[in-house]
Amino acid sequence: MPAISYQMYGSRNWALAETLTMLSAAGFSEVEGYGGLYGDPDGLQAALQQNGLRMTTGHFGLAEIEADPQRVIDLANRFGMEAVFAPFIVAEERPKDLAGWQAFATSLVEAGKPIQDAGLVFGWHNHDFELVDLGAGVTALDVIAQASPDLKLELDIGWVIRAGQDPVAMIQKYGSQIKVAHIKDVAAQGAGLDEDGWSDVGHGVVGWAPIHAALQAAGVDRYVIEHDNPNDHLRFATRSLNAVTAF
Predict the structure, then answer these.
(1) What Pfam family does this protein match (any one) (predicted)?
(2) 3-state helix, strand, coil in the chain (%, to 5)
């Protein structure tokens, strides 16, 4: 069974100390960080240690990685991260065509070199916009993955499904280039409207058995449980951990 982590972004509406205490009590031992947490590294480190949690992976904005890679490396090393993922581009900055995405992928590879040289895994975390057909069946995520075998992927299963794609086929396509998977469930049509249409893992419409099997065949060794907007993060964390542990 892979390591199981929790993406802290889903608990951004709760106090950090409360969240970490809750996650520790629920049975988590790992969390994944995101940009809003890194402003007080001393406080974050103390709170993690107090609750027996490790921040094994982290999201950092691409602009920050490009502007100050050493700060990213220092933070990653401080918290014991094994991997750094760039997670998003705002709509107005996204490339509009294949050539634009090819240029973006080249810049992503370059941005990751200092991170990789420091001994860390570096890669990209997808949403749904990278899965739009750019022509001839090629997507932006294809372009990113093909830019370098050293550029890893954190494949978000929920966004793959939201994009209308088959997650098993996508896992098989990218194979060992997938380092981490975001385990995120989709609510039934008309349900979960107060939670942006997401669900607790195992309580939505996603059939996890073939996805889990495909991820294991690809050698993915870490699952990060995520919900973009839970209205009860304790309910989400506990039910989701139970479901993923039962995979």
Answers:
(1) AP_endonuc_2
(2) 50, 20, 30
CATH topology of domain 3-245: TIM Barrel (3.20.20)
Given a contact cutoff of 8 angstroms between Cβ atoms, the answer to whether 38 and 59 are in contact is no
The per-residue pLDDT for range 107-139, each reduced to its tens digit, is 999 999 999 999 999 999 999 999 999 998 999
DSSP three-state, residue 197:
coil
pLDDT, one tens digit per residue, over 31-77 is 999 999 999 999 999 999 999 999 999 999 999 999 999 999 999 99
How does pLDDT run across 219-247, given as a tens digit for each residue?
Answer: 999 999 999 999 999 999 999 999 999 99
What type of residue is 195?
E
The structure tokens listed for 133 are 């057909």
67 CB-side CA count, 13 A: 5
pTM: 0.97
Buried-state track 202-239, b at ≥16 Cβ within 10 A, e below 16 = bbbebebeebbebbeebebebbbbbbbbbeebbebbbb
State the Cα–Cα distance between residues 78 and 212, nearest whole angstrom. 31
Residue type at 12 in one-letter notation: R
List the domain boundaries for the chain: 3-245
H/E run at residue 100 = helix 98-117
Strands (E), the chain: 3-6, 30-33, 54-59, 83-86, 121-125, 152-156, 178-183, 185-186, 198-199, 222-225
